[in-house]
Design a protein that fits this description.
The chain is mainly beta. The chain has three helices and 14 strands. Strands 1, 2, 3, 4, 5, 6, 7, 8, 9, 10, 11, 12, 13 and 14 form a 14-stranded parallel β-sheet that branches. The N terminus and C terminus are likely disordered.
C-alpha cells in the first residue's frame, strides 16, 4: 500500500563493510569485525575479522590478531593468524608468531618470533609420496605378467 516495499536494495546488500580507526584512536579490549578494517591508532587486546586487516604505519597493536588477510606497516606485539595471507611492508615491526598459508615480507621489516607459512597447498608428507611410488600398479603388472 502507498508504494512502500520491504524489499532490500540488492546493490547495497553485497557491499563489503569498511571500518577505519584513525590515528589518535585508543582501544582496550577485543575488536570483532566482518569486513575490511584499517587501524592507525593504538589497540591493546585482540582483533578479529573475516576480511582484510590493514595495520597502518603509525598503528600499535598489543595483542593477538586473526583475519582472512593481514597487511601491516605498523607495530604488532602478539601472534598473527591469517587464513589467506600475511604481508609485512617495510615499516612493520612484529614480535610474535605468524601462522598463514602465504607470507610476504618486504625488505626492512623487523621480525622477532616464528613463522609457519604452509604455501599455496599443503604438501603431502614424504611417507605418503613414497607409498604412492612404491605401491604396485596391478593392471600394469597383469598386462605384462607377474614378475
Amino acid at each position: 500500500m502507498f508504494g512502500l516495499s520491504k524489499k532490500k536494495d540488492s546493490a547495497h546488500s553485497n557491499e563489503e563493510t569498511l571500518t577505519f580507526l584513525a590515528r589518535g584512536f585508543e582501544f582496550n579490549g577485543t575488536l570483532n569485525f566482518d569486513g575490511t578494517v584499517r587501524i592507525d591508532g593504538v589497540v591493546t587486546g585482540e582483533i578479529h575479522t573475516e576480511g582484510t586487516l590493514i595495520i597502518g604505519e603509525h598503528a600499535v597493536v598489543e595483542g593477538n590478531v586473526s583475519a582472512g588477510t593481514v597487511v601491516s606497516g605498523g607495530k604488532i606485539n602478539g601472534n598473527v593468524t591469517a587464513r589467506e595471507k600475511v604481508k609485512l611492508v617495510s615499516t612493520a615491526a612484529l614480535v610474535g608468531t605468524i601462522r598463514t598459508p602465504l607470507l610476504d615480507v618486504e625488505e626492512g621489516v623487523r621480525l622477532k618470533g616464528t613463522c609457519e607459512a604452509q604455501g599455496l597447498r599443503a604438501e603431502q608428507p614424504p611417507d605418503d609420496k613414497l607409498k604412492e611410488v612404491t605401491q604396485p600398479n596391478k593392471p600394469l603388472l597383469r598386462q605384462y605378467g607377474e614378475l
